[in-house]
Amino acid sequence: xxxxxxxxxxxxxxxxxxxxxxxxxxxxxxxxxxxxxxxxxxxxxxxxxxxxxxxxxxxxxxxxxxxxxxxxxxxxxxxxxxxxxxxxxxxxxxxxxxx
Length: 99
What we know:
mainly alpha, 2 helices
């Protein structure tokens, strides 16, 4: 159970963190940098800088549906096991009363 929840949380973080990082990078590139820091021209993210951000986002977006399906399957299996235990207990109880 904990492994499945960690899978979901990690997938959500892989979606949120790159988006926040990209927004922060774009915001920071629009801040004027003059003097010894820069010449006032914005430094936009380059392709090599965007590749890890995009790949992390795609991995999170691809794994989230898988994690949700695994969680639903785990819940279904838990309910099936409970029903099976109830049926076994009922059979045992009735077997004592039937001749």
